[in-house]
Amino acid sequence: MSILEVKNLYKSFPIYGGIFHKQVGAVQAVNDVSFSLEKGETIGVVGESGCGKTTLGRTLVRLYEPTSGTVLVNGKDFRSYHGDDLKHARRDFQMIFQDPYASLNPRMSVRAILEEPLKLHGIGNAEERLKSVLKIAEIVGLRRDALARYPHEFSGGQRQRIGIARSLILNPKIVIADEPVSALDVSIQSQVLNLLNDLKKEFGLSYIFITHDLAVVKFISDKIMIMYLGRMMEVGYTDDIFAAPQHPYTKALLSSIPKPNPHLRGKGQVLQGDVPSPSRPPSGCVFHTRCPLATDRCKTEIPKLHTVNPNKQHQVACHFVPGQG
Questions:
Q1: Summary mean pLDDT of the chain
Q2: pTM (2 decimals)?
């Protein structure tokens, strides 16, 4: 059984306007997303800015309440929890935020930041909590004397280690990492990515890794999910998608990866135009306004996600991929 199953998840945000401040529309940020996550697996969620990646992550942990759909954690409906039950369930479902400085309280020491989750969940006495803090600090590479310092006294990479330590101190089963290395220098990125991989092996963690960097997602992910305007365009094993991308959007993203060898440079596939407004998405396939293969059918009919390789769970939502009815 999968550790996480998401079925037909939707998240929309109302738009209000006019003199009487009535709802005049809605932004469909997450639109009919379904996938499963196995224990010890990492799924990379990829797409351009505004495609719904971060909203998906925040909706899964219920920082945003889903509009509709099902989120099952170990077979139990995560949306059914409320109050103390929800707080207890969140011990298994933690998040690493994109900006480590903004997500850390500047008035709390590192020790207080790491102790706070334990206090909120009533775990241990003062001595036991300190032992837990010292242990997790050592695991993520923070020195003991750093615990008395404050977030502004650390570099970006060190602050992200604090954020990682905070997300792991409750021994979660699932961690959603929202662009955890995008604000870091390249040399620091590799340190944090290696740390996340080591922690995954040591604690048997399952990750949902949100990023726009395809080089990063190739390094850390077992599977990749490509999103565009809130919808899933393609999902499959990382090696399969990099070796043989099926969706035109996936092909364009992969062709944009910089090649360090000038002799290997190709023309690439440059997408024309900008991402449409999520408050007024195109009819039919949401990608048709920028797709080089688009036909009249694409403008009216939404392509269903279908399997192109049953043995390897490779699925694509495109009318031009074999298997689409």
A1: 90
A2: 0.91
